[in-house]
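Box 3.1 A note on notation
Throughout this textbook, protein chains are presented in two layers. The first layer is the amino acid sequence; the second is a token string describing backbone geometry. Keep the layers aligned when reading.
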Amino acid sequence: MPIFFALLLATAFPSNSPTSWMRPESFHLAIGMSRAQVTDAMHAWELKPGPNANELVVDYGGDKSLTLEFHNARLASIRFELFTLLPQIRSAFNETRDRLRDTRGKPRMATSSILIYDNVLPNVMVVVNDDPKTENGKKGLGVLAVRYYDPR
């Protein structure tokens, strides 16, 4: 019985959080990994070619995607994107802001729609678009993008 309980605690449970998946560690990724290591780590998902030869895209769900960008065959950027209804996108941004504040401290730059952490690698940039006047906004959709990257 204790072994069963330990296994139960070690098992990953689905999260109610809309942003819990938007972290490199959720996919066992780290900036600087080789392209082969990334491909191996992402074997459970379909990797599609991006707009240029240095990018791979993963459709994580109908409303979620991530883009992997490589420089010199090394992972240089991971961009997570969440597309959801306008009222929910702001709470997703706030949740991301709070988590980053807990783990990284105060951002170098913070506005109501942008956060920039560039004091420790990888750098992190968070951008939310919840403007109802944009093309997506007129449809009631917002976008949250979280990018982990090496600026070099």
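Strands lie at 48-49, 55-61, 64-71, 74-85, 109-110, 114-117, 123-129, 141-149. The two ends are 51 Å apart (CA to CA).
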